[in-house]
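Dear support,

I submitted the protein below through the web form. The confirmation email said the job was done, but the results page showed an empty box. After a refresh the structure appeared. I'm attaching both so you can tell me whether what I see now is the final result or a partial one.
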Amino acid sequence: YETTYYYWLKSYDTSGNASSESASVSTMPNRTAAGDIVDAIQSENFVSGVSGWYIGFRGVDDGYAEFNDVTVRGILTAGEIHIPDQDVTGDSFHVQPDGDTWWGCTETDFNADPDNALAYVLKTGIAKFQNIALGGAAGSVALGYTNSDVFIINFDEDDVDVELRFGRATGGAASITWNGVLVQCSKALKPVDLGINNISASAPGSPFAGQVWLDVS
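What the results page shows now:
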């Protein structure tokens, strides 16, 4: 034999106003007709962005849901991620569908110019950070190489002292290749080591390769 179940449905809007109860549903066990399906279900205390939960089935909120906390035991697949919102808060974190990730500006500002973000990692492998510490037990890390043609210190050109230091506890020599010429740095670096043949305090009459003119004015 079959058991027939009778039940009624009532919907609530986001202000907590309840609709009238639907007609009883009993056409077939465990089934409802299309006209008996409400657009959404929600908890009694639901206030968008504040409390409760909400699940939209059809209409304007088709597929929309809101919860306070969610635990996902399996794989989470998302089209994009925006924390805490997509286009309001500057202090935010975002991941676009193409993989571009950034911090510190809205989506509109990032799409206008990625440099509006305080930090980003693009799908092309290009990254930007305000400051980065690479450290181990001794607070340092070895960088083997870079594929970039330009290595810039003090990228934002702040008016500060800049130091490029090659440090080693015992033995060995650092080296710099300057215009294709290997420069040994096992001792104090002298102008001649960089191909500088003359330093003059006066304007050069006939400049020559390797000359450096110091304007003392």
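Response: this is the final, complete result; the empty box was a page-load delay. The chain is about 5% helix and 15% strand.
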